[in-house]
Every structure is written in structure tokens, then in C-alpha cells.
Amino acid sequence: VGSEMCIRDREKEKLSTLENYDDTEAKSEIALNRITLGYQRKNLLKNTAVSKTQNGITFTVNEDGSVTASGTATTTFTFWINSWSDGIPDSLRGCELTVSGCPSGGSSTSYRISVHQKQSEDESWQGVGADFGNGCTFRFSDTTKISRVAISVNAGITLDNAVFHPMLRYAEITDDSYEPYKPSVEERLAALEEKFAALEGGGT
User: Fold this and answer.
1) Do the beta carbons of residue 110 and residue 157 sit within 8 Å?
2) d(CA 71, CA 28)
3) Which contacts (CB < 8 Å, 24+ apart) does range 155-161 have?
4) Mean of the per-residue pLDDT values for the chain?
5) How many alpha carbons lie under 13 Å from residue 174 in its C-beta half-sphere?
6) Which of 3, 65, 74, 99 could form a disulfide with 56 if both were Cys (CB 3.0 to 4.6 A apart)?
């Protein structure tokens, strides 16, 4: 599905040369219809973090993947909520993506949801994009090997039950209302195959 979206991006570039061409609304509606039918996810970001207190801030990971944060940051730091350590998924490579979900009050000097990438283990993290509350559209580099999404908080900033709703979606989906992560079709099929294999092997 992701590769198909990238193909459509290229086709849009061709069509954009036509006068008064704008298919933004139509593309968003088509994408949302795919989500409703169940074979495309709106939120591509799986929150793999666990609740903990870090640098003065207590982060509570909620059942829907949102994160509640309270406390005063003793230093500037990042709370990692997702990591692709073996290269970003092919479905995301080369596509326009939007990260969103930062509560009001976000900025480069307070708090934000940030996206980082590396070209190799030996390199330093590079910022790709950051959402301060209005969403941020970006593309991963074609050579990205490692990527992480985080909640970043600056030193001295106080959060009082601030709720982050981390979401990563294809940029053609303009509706920014939060939707929890759901397993992809491939992940669901893999889980079923694993269950069948266990049954055939005498497992329970």
C-alpha cells in the first residue's frame, strides 16, 4: 500500500502542471476510505515505550498509545517512543509523511514530538521533523538506516498531565484526529500463520 502511495505521489507531480489542479481533498477521502475498509492504517506509529520517570518527568503510556507527561525537566532530553533499528519500512521510504500529536504549548524551546534518523550506527542523530502542535510533514532520507520518534522536552519545562497523541500518517491524509496504531495486514497474517504453525506442531 505504501509503495502505491509513492506512485500516486509521482503521478500527482505530473498532474500538478495542469492549471488549477488540486486533488488534496479527494486523495484524503480515498485514503480514509481505505482505512475504514481495514486494509490501510491511518496511524503508522507503534508506540513501544514503557511508562517511566526520566529526568524529572513521569511518562505514562496509555492503552491507546497516547502518553501523559507530568513534572519538571531537569535537563533537555528525549523520551523514545518508537525505533526502527533495521532500516525504516519500505512502505515509508520516499513518501511524504506527517507527524502530529503534540499538545498545545509545544515549540522548539519547550516540548515537541520529534523524528530523528541516522545513516549508520556511528553517526549522530539528525532531526528530520518536529511537531509543535500543528503537524509537520517530512520525508526520510533515501539512505536512512535507523530512525526514532520521541517526545523531546527542554530543561526547566514543567508539564502538568500533558497528553501527547503520537501519530505518523501519509501526508495525503489531512485529517489529524488521533487514531491508535493498528497492526498492518502483513502483521495480522503473520500472527495467524504463527498460530496455525503452533496448532500443527501440537502447541496451544
Assistant:
1) yes
2) 38
3) 155/73, 155/74, 155/75, 155/76, 156/72, 156/73, 157/72, 157/73, 157/110, 157/111, 158/71, 158/72, 158/73, 159/57, 159/69, 159/70, 159/71, 159/72, 159/73, 159/111, 160/70, 161/68, 161/69, 161/70
4) 82
5) 8
6) 74
Tell me the pLDDT tens digit for each residue of 105-131: 999 999 999 999 988 888 889 999 999
Cα-flanking dihedrals φ and ψ of residue 149, to 5°? -120, 140
List 149's β-bridge partners, or say none: 82, 115
* Distance (Å, whole) CA 155 – CA 125: 19
- Between β-strands 52-54 and 57-61, what pairing exists: parallel, antiparallel or unpaired? antiparallel
Q: Which residues are CB-neighbours of 76 under 8 A, at least 6 positions away?
A: 152, 153, 154, 155
* Distance (Å, whole) CA 67 – CA 63: 9
Place of cell 503520537: 166
pLDDT of 28-68, one tens digit each? Answer: 555 544 444 445 689 999 999 999 999 999 999 999 999 99
Burial classification of residue 122, based on how many CB atoms lie within 10 Å of its CB (0-12 exposed, 13-18 middle, 19 or more buried): exposed
Composition of the chain by helix, strand, coil, percent to 5: 20, 30, 50
Number of residues written out for the chain: 204
The 8-class DSSP code of residue 124 comes to P
The count of other CB atoms within 10 Å of the CB of residue 31 is 22
Q: Which residue has the cell 507530568?
A: 70
> Radius of gyration of the chain from Cα atoms?
19
Cell 513534572 identifies what position?
71
